[in-house]
Amino acid sequence: MNISHAWTSVWRMALMALVLILGLGLGQQALAQADPDREIATAVPSVDADAWRQIRSGETGPNFRSSRFDSNYNLINASGENWRQLRNRWVSPFGLIAIGGMLAMIVIFYLIFGRKRLDEPKTGRKLPRWPLMMRSLHWTVATLFILLALSGLNLFYGKLVFKPLFGDSAWSGMISASKLVHNYLGPLFGILLVFLLLRLFKENLPKKHDLVWFKKGGGMIGKGHVDAGFANGGEKVWYWLLATVGIAVIASGLVLDFPNFGQSRDTMQWANIIHALGALGLTAVALGHIYIGTIGTEGSLEGMTTGYVDETWAKEHHNLWYEKVKDQTVTKEQLAADHGNTRGGDQAAPRTS
């Protein structure tokens, strides 16, 4: 089986899983709409000033109490109102500023500087950079990240955007599908992200030359290229954001995803705040990562799609790594022949040119 056939199979499986999840979401939506008016009318009695006095004093009766066995927790309480205010007044604006600001920065940067082109023509000689297993893991994690980001944004802002545009029925279907996608794909994303972080740990350890990389703005300040190993300073920052903020998002998401392990509602409220802040921040930074890795830098996407990078790209962007692997270059002809003879779809052993 060659690389293209293996890659096609991976994407077909991912597409089938997505279709299944969306189908489940639409089914849940139909069940939820059976009698929504009666549910709203009987869910909770009216909350007036006297009820709020009781809530703040903790004197609420059984009508406001959790239905869990032997529970004395009040469903309506002052901490819930504090959580709502924090979420709406601080977390929600933070997300809009972070994501909107990053999009604006990308557009302005592109209009001013354009795409980062290679200083020298491509040689046509290739260096192996990403094996098939790493590329498959990267694209799977990236796809899950995008699905989780879109579904999370819909859960957070969808009511303000899509409900007025499409009405209650369409919006409820979108919310139901988003909730299923988020709840079921979140743990899978967490597991695969940990595998990815462990695999890339050694390449992302900080080095002294990373300080110079930052001082020169990744090569934008001053003349000449800045030193970089397998990963440059910017890529290492993204890695450690995923290894810290990303793990916090995963942990808080698991607290929310599995509320049956004895955690209190207060704990889940804080988990919700941590989850939202971390996820919104990572989404904003991910937009920059996606831009730089695709249209922002010539030759970058090639490494993660084919597994190989051009010799010129390696010299200009990762010169220290290039010096270690420059004897592994292969020509286009050798690469085509190796891929034609390789079984299992992985890269062939590199040849010296």
TrEMBL record:
Gene Ontology cellular component annotations, sorted alphabetically: formate dehydrogenase complex; plasma membrane
Gene3D superfamilies per UniProt: Transmembrane di-heme cytochromes, Chain C
Residues that span the membrane, as ranges: 90-113, 134-157, 184-201, 237-258, 270-292
Cellular location(s): Cell membrane
One GO biological process term: anaerobic respiration
Membrane topology (UniProt): Multi-pass membrane protein
InterPro entries: Cyt_b561_bac/Ni-Hgenase, Di-haem_cyt_TM, FDH_cytochrome_b556_subunit, Formate_DH_gsu
Source superkingdom: Bacteria
GO molecular-function terms, A-Z: electron transfer activity; formate dehydrogenase (NAD+) activity; formate dehydrogenase (quinone) activity; metal ion binding
Keywords (A to Z) from UniProt: Cell membrane, Electron transport, Heme, Iron, Membrane, Metal-binding, Transmembrane, Transmembrane helix, Transport
Domain Cytochrome b561 bacterial/Ni-hydrogenase span(s) in chain numbering: 129-307
Needed co-factor(s): heme
NCBIfam families: formate-DH-gamm (TIGR01583)
Family designation: Belongs to the formate dehydrogenase gamma subunit family.
Protein name (Swiss-Prot/TrEMBL): Formate dehydrogenase gamma subunit
Species of the source: Halomonas korlensis
